[in-house]
Amino acid sequence: MVLTPGNTSDHKAARLCLEAMPPSKYMIADKGYDSAALREWLEERGTEPVIPPRVNRKLQYAYDKALYRTRNVIKRSFGRLKDYRRIATRFDKDVRNFFAALCIAVTVIWWI
Question: Are 102 and 87 in contact (CB under 8 A)?
């Protein structure tokens, strides 16, 4: 997991997280990850990006819409995280404490 400031684009942290993992067949993500650089890097790795293009993009990329629908599993996981008030409201102002609480919450969610 990587903790970034709220004003950082999703696609900037994605590469950092994905480099630590072995390549997968697909990468399913939302429009926040629509970046030409990220798409090229994924294709070089042998990963097919399943990312819908932004509306204002001149070149509209094709993507597998049926596979994109499986992204709801990820959305539900983030919804479960928001059940923890300490995480949802960013109760801890110190980054280390917030990250520790986040790790504990993720562990509890995974364990259940």
Answer: yes
What is d(CA 18, CA 31) in angstroms, rounded to the nearest whole number?
17
Q: Which two tokens stand for residue 75?
A: 């959305």
Q: Count other C-beta atoms under 10 Å from residue 39's C-beta.
A: 19
Task: Provide the residue-wise pLDDT of the chain in tens; the chain has 112 residues.
Answer: 778 777 777 788 888 889 888 999 999 998 888 888 999 999 999 999 999 998 898 888 999 999 999 998 888 888 998 898 888 888 888 889 999 999 999 999 888 7
* Domain regions of the chain by residue span: 1-61
* pTM exceeds 0.85 for this model: no
